[in-house]
Amino acid sequence: MTNQVDETYLTLGRQILTNGVQKGDRTGTGTISTFGCQLRFDLQKEGFPIMTTKRVAFKLIASELLWFLKGDTNIRYLLQNNNHIWDEWGFKIWVESDEYTGPDMTDFGLRCQTDADFNRLYQEQMKIYQDNVLQDDAFAKKFGDLGNVYGKQWRKWQGADGQEYDQIQYIIDEIKRNPDSRRLLVSAWSASEMASQALPPCHYAFQFYVVDGKLSCMFNMRSVDYFLGLAFNITSYALLTYLIAHECGLAVGELVFTGADVHIYANHIEQVKEQLSRTPKKLPTLQLNKEKSSIFDFELADITLLGYEPHPTIKAPVAV
């Protein structure tokens, strides 16, 4: 059986390379961009949706999702779980502050790629930053917190009435109470809080749909890094759908991705071509701890991916 998860994803990559337009971006890296894309994945067929044409770090995806679900916005939890995918954003807050006294880290994301001497300095400063977040409570509070990012919006949305609203708990309660609701929607986009976010949400909203005892999810993204981001996001929202379905006593249905500016960074083109040259493999299966009834009680040990044997990792720099 053909692996439709990889095939669907790779088809989009070919379309961007063929039909995309060159476009500037906030990071200064440059992109090949296209606007308005949709992908669909049947969660009941084949296996769990994670790329097999390159290794995707599932434990990083799972720990980040659990971080969101905890309502946490401080990267200390991620570092404790050896997850470094948000380090650069916290590091940027530190090196741009008045308290930073080390070497100049201006444009560190781009300079690391072309200057080996600078990269060594950057790695030294990053290690100092990580150690301080892990060991110094005051430092972690000031420079480890990324502001009102996903976890805060999902679990502690600030209402106009001054009250906090737990959007995830609402979704779970409403699915159990009224599965035909068309209001099973979570938003992470708060115009009034953008200035307090290290990175405004890329995946800014998602909505659930229940029919025939199956839970489907559509997630929406304003900006999509095709090579590093999208593969990660597909697996993350698939896992979220499985977790919500688990608590609500439902089977999984379909996962739908809708993206606005979907782009390949200029320094990811060769990596994309390498992935496109590979043949998809068999998808793995997901196993959740059935003894846990609430998704808020899940830890990494409760989430297992079985039979994941992908092609090797393809490394690429993160645009910050």
TrEMBL record:
| GO MF annotation terms | thymidylate synthase activity
Protein name as annotated? Thymidylate synthase
Query: Can you tell me which residues bind dUMP?
Result: R26, R182, R183, R222, S223, V224, D225, N233, H263, I264, Y265
Q: What is its EC number?
A: 2.1.1.45
Q: Report the source organism.
A: Lysinibacillus alkalisoli
- Family per record: Belongs to the thymidylate synthase family. Bacterial-type ThyA subfamily.
Give the residues the record marks as binding (6R)-5,10-methylene-5,6,7,8-tetrahydrofolate.
D225, A319
**Physiological role:** Catalyzes the reductive methylation of 2'-deoxyuridine-5'-monophosphate (dUMP) to 2'-deoxythymidine-5'-monophosphate (dTMP) while utilizing 5,10-methylenetetrahydrofolate (mTHF) as the methyl donor and reductant in the reaction, yielding dihydrofolate (DHF) as a by-product. This enzymatic reaction provides an intracellular de novo source of dTMP, an essential precursor for DNA biosynthesis.
Q: Which residues form the active site?
A: C202
Domain Thymidylate synthase/dCMP hydroxymethylase per the UniProt entry, residue ranges? 8-320
Task: Give the UniProt entry's GO cellular component terms.
Answer: cytosol
The protein's UniProt keywords, in alphabetical order, are:
Cytoplasm, Methyltransferase, Nucleotide biosynthesis, Transferase
Question: So which residues are the signal peptide here?
Answer: none
Q: How does it assemble?
A: Homodimer.
Q: Name one Pfam family in it.
A: Thymidylat_synt
| Entry's localization field | Cytoplasm
Looking up PANTHER family in the UniProt record yields: THYMIDYLATE SYNTHASE, THYMIDYLATE SYNTHASE 1
NCBIfam families for this protein: PRK01827.1-2, thym_sym
Give one GO biological process term. dTMP biosynthetic process
Give the catalysed reaction(s), semicolon-separated. Answer: dUMP + (6R)-5,10-methylene-5,6,7,8-tetrahydrofolate = 7,8-dihydrofolate + dTMP
List the pathway annotation: Pyrimidine metabolism; dTTP biosynthesis
Gene of this entry: thyA
Q: Please, which domain of life does this record's source organism belong to?
A: Bacteria
